[in-house]
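Sample intake sheet
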Amino acid sequence: MVAPKHIVSAATIVLNERNEILLIKGPRRGWEMPGGQVEEGESLKDAAIRETKEESGIDVEVTKFCGIFQNVSASICNTLFLARPVGGELTTTPESLEVGYFPIEEALKMVNWGNFKQRIEYCLDEELHPFFVEFSLPL
């Protein structure tokens, strides 16, 4: 029997006190929300917090689980959370060439990779929570 080859990731939509969204600019996908793969033995929530800190320098408190986007053909489940900043300082890394907070409308125009804009929109619309979105796109 072959071991499963699934990827589970966790991402945050971080809103500051001015209702601006935290975005990072990655080298491959451009502007996006912080997030990444869940490590073995790590909770989804803890992974979202860790990835946000690693990619942006910002410490966050998760305030709500929003939902899941599942890329069926690529065997990836991306879990999404709302969060608020509680500390840290904006910091760039090799994974995030630029980081910053942006007004929601501006942020939605900046995010162009795949369905990432839709993921943000779903997280910002509490009437859709919790959501489960299936799609198929090869890696």
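Comment: The longest helix spans residues 44-56. The chain has one domain: 7-135.
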